[in-house]
Amino acid sequence: MTEGHTDDRIILAHGGGGELTERLLRERIVPKLTNPLLDPLNDSAVLARPGGRVCMTTDGYVVQPIEFPGGDIGRLAVCGTVNDLAVMGARPLALSLALIIEEGLPLSTLDRVMDSIAASAAEAGVPVATGDTKVIERRKGDGVMIATAGIGEMRPDAAMDAARIGPGDAIIINGRIADHGLAVMSAREHLVFETELRTDVAPLNGLTEAVLDTGADVKFMRDPTRGGLAGVLADLIEATGLTIEADETAIPISRTALHTAEMLGLDPLTVANEGKVVMVVSAGDAERVLAACRDHKYGKHTAVIGRFTDVAPPLAELITRAGGRRMITRPYGEELPRIC
Amino acid sequence: MDRAAIRRMVEEIETILAARDSIRIMEVCGTHTVSLFRSGIKSMLPPGLKLISGPGCPVCVTSQGYLDVACELAARPDVTVCTYGDMVRVPGRNGSLADQRGRGAEVIVVYSARDALKHAEEHPDRKTVFLAVGFETTTPATAAVILAAEAKGLENFFILPAHKLVIPAMTALVSGGDVPLDGFLCPGHVSVVIGADVYRPIAEGFGKPCVVAGFEPRQMLEGILGIARQLAEGRAQVENVYGVAVTGEGNRPARELIGKVFTPADAVWRAMGTIPESGLDLRPEYKRFDAFDRFGVEQGPDVCPAGCLCGEVIQGKAAPSDCALFGAACSPLSPVGPCMVSSEGACSAWYKYHRKA
Amino acid sequence: MCLAVPGKIVDIAGSGDDPLNGRVATVDMQGSRVEASLAMTPEADAGDWVLVHAGFALTVIDEREAKETWEALQIALGDDSPPAASSEDA
């Protein structure tokens, strides 16, 4: 096939709802996702009513570039949605998937993204029940954007509520921070460098289920995506009115991530993660939770990174490697590489 | 991290301070300001050890007039502005470069000046303007890029020059006499280029110990301790604790690059006015790369927003918390002045890392 | 005003006169690789350690001294206590 030939790439007509759309769905999308909820291809999927409370979440994915070391936007979309349910103590039941594709996207890229979605959904054990496909005019070469919704069933024993957090409670994270944000940055056009860093994107519902199955008193879970670990700790002091003391030497981070963040002038605590969950657990249950996590594929480097205290005023403080202290605050937003 | 060694150094500083009221050290370099906070070293120092922020934050000392020109150029449909990340959110008269991007301007963050040159080569239909800010650490890079642009005969690459020199600024501050200072913690990486010896006139001429230090926690503490010891012993010398990277002489090839392309010129430092021979202009033979000339734009007056104390902060005349806007109207989310926007700015560092108690 | 990090030159491309890219090094930063122009460090060779700032090598540094000065390199030197920085896992 010659380069640039319309057979190679998405064109506007693929989103027109006609024959080309049908073909696209039939050949490149539906077969990869096939499951009893999706296959009727009706306007809506019909789900059996779950016994417990229903949890619902929605997310949009616009990551640039769409493929980055260790992952892509497809895996990100599935895992991000699954994780939003998992951290609520909900078992994911179904996902919806809206693809907004830019004309000009190579079909081979779409295939890779769809394969990734399928593999991630299979790993998480959750079906894509319904979806939509639109094509927009070529703009900046974004490629594809994805919007999802996820439905889950709350576990009857899920009792997470920040109001229950008290002094002495332990803050746990399931592994190394900053990999995702730095891996994505390394793939961006104007920051050309290679890295061993890979995104940590992963579906965490297996891990969270294992944690809740221990019967431990888990009071809070959140995934530190945009805003990083610092963002979640800031959320926590706002929600609880308590103080957090975190130990820099206990926060898991790879030496590559540490060095790369240093090079770009970024604080690793503020860098996005896509395969991490921050858990607040009563002190007596910390060991139990650590053991359950470390036994899991996505929890090998789980660690207690800090505790709550009732020292006023409420703030999040880091005991640094040097043995001093400094505040942890929510980052402004877009973290940019600096010279200074 | 050898916490015991760190503890011992802090104790020695405490002992020295027991015999004095206070020690006032200027951290010339914004990176030192941030690193001292982030590493937690600042929290370990006794209250008598006063660290004063200096003018070593290129973004903080860039006049608003310059930024307004950058925004004006960015707004032109045929221009792409390439800039280090630091500059993107600094508010000008009509918003920041990030705001321009929101209005459709092409503003690209680059990690290196080389990326800006590459952009020009890859987009011959666009005019690429690189915002050349920074001190001597960064200036040789711009110089090398200009030489390459010349060798390649590029007609669509320009820089908007605003490079500044550290020694004239330090000299202006110390000779001004209105900022009580006992010593200088000298910028480690600028010193890699300019060498440690150039601080001698300041140390010996004004009687202020100058210690060159890197940015690791232990480095900074050694630098501060070095100044404290000199003061205790009545000395005022240049000392270099960053010998792994800094020599007395500095990096000659780097300085030769600067000298080939640039020539010293008077420069406007935000809120400090004009400091003679403290900036760099392109030499006549490279003037064709000067975006001011090419686009016929002039840097307007340096206007500081009402109530903003950035000018005082960078001269060590005020602490961020002295500013009425600090933490109220001015915060990282809605910065008024560059000291809050810049990740190296004293106000930003204070806001992010300093204990609010 | 300067973020500069130490790394080891693993490769050098070019030997030409281009003032910028005549010699460009690939510098390894504990698992991430950066390109750095050697315009300021004409004496640098493959295997040398350099300090890199904004895409340029600022100066050659001694490897042993570098490991004593930069904490991140000390962590890399095989402090294997989990869960902080240690060897990469699969």
Highlighted features:
heterotrimer; A: 340 residues; alpha+beta; 60s Ribosomal Protein L30, Chain: A; 4-stranded mixed β-sheet; 8 helices; 14 strands; 29% helix; globular; disordered N terminus; B: alpha/beta; Rossmann fold; 4-stranded parallel β-sheet; 17 helices
Topology (elements, then pairings):
The complex is a heterotrimer of chains A (340), B (357) and C (90).
Chain A: H1 19-33, E1 54-61, E2 67-68, E3 71-72, H2 73-86, E4 90-102, H3 107-124, E5 128-136, E6 144-154, E7 170-173, H4 179-187, E8 194-195, H5 205-213, E9 218-222, H6 228-240, E10 243-247, H7 255-264, E11 278-281, H8 286-294, E12 303-309, E13 316-319, E14 325-327
Parallel strand pairs in A: 4-5, 10-13
Antiparallel strand pairs in A: 1-6, 2-3, 4-6, 7-11, 7-12, 9-11, 10-12, 13-14
Helix pairs in contact in A: 1-3, 2-3, 2-5, 5-8
Chain B: H1 3-18, E1 23-29, H2 30-38, H3 41-44, E2 49-56, H4 58-61, H5 64-74, E3 79-83, H6 97-102, E4 106-109, H7 113-122, E5 127-134, H8 139-151, E6 157-163, H9 166-176, E7 183-187, H10 188-194, H11 200-206, E8 210-213, H12 217-232, E9 238-240, H13 252-261, E10 262-269, E11 273-282, H14 291-295, H15 310-314, H16 338-341, H17 346-353
Parallel strand pairs in B: 1-2, 1-7, 3-4, 3-5, 5-6, 7-8, 8-9
Antiparallel strand pairs in B: 10-11
Chain C: E1 5-13, E2 24-29, E3 32-37, E4 49-53, E5 56-61, H1 63-69, H2 71-76
Antiparallel strand pairs in C: 1-2, 1-4, 2-3, 4-5
Written description of the protein model:
The complex is a heterotrimer of chains A (340), B (357) and C (90). Chain A has 340 residues and is an alpha+beta fold. Chain A has 2 domains: 6-154, 2-Layer Sandwich (60s Ribosomal Protein L30, Chain: A); 162-327, Phosphoribosyl-aminoimidazole Synthetase, Chain A, domain 2. Helices cover 29% and strands 23% of the residues of chain A. Chain A has helices at residues 19-33, 73-86, 107-124, 179-187, 205-213, 228-240, 255-264, 286-294, and strands at residues 54-61, 67-68, 71-72, 90-102, 128-136, 144-154, 170-173, 194-195, 218-222, 243-247, 278-281, 303-309, 316-319, 325-327. A 7-stranded mixed sheet of chain A has the order 9-11-7-12-10-13-14. Chain A has a 4-stranded mixed sheet with strand order 1-6-4-5. In chain A, helix 3 links the parallel strand 4 and strand 5 (128-136). Chain A starts with 18 loop residues before the first helix and ends in a 13-residue tail after the last strand. With 357 residues, chain B is an alpha/beta fold. Chain B has a domain at 60-164 and 250-295: HypD, alpha/beta domain 2 (Rossmann fold). Chain B contains 17 helices and 11 strands. In chain B, the strands form 3 sheets. Chain B has a 5-stranded parallel sheet with strand order 2-1-7-8-9. A 4-stranded parallel sheet of chain B has the order 4-3-5-6, sandwiched between helices. Chain B has a two-stranded antiparallel sheet with strand order 10-11. In chain B, helix 1 (3-18) packs parallel to helix 12 (217-232), helix 2 runs parallel beside helix 17 (346-353) and helix 8 (139-151) crosses helix 13 (252-261). By secondary structure, chain C is of the alpha+beta class. Chain C has one domain (5-76): SH3 type barrels, CATH 2.30.30. Chain C has 2 helices and 5 strands. Chain C has helices at residues 63-69, 71-76; strands spanning 5-13, 24-29, 32-37, 49-53, 56-61. In chain C, a hairpin with a 2-residue loop joins strand 4 (49-53) and strand 5 (56-61). The longest helix of chain C has 7 residues, at 63-69. The model of chain C is unreliable at 77-90 (pLDDT under 50).
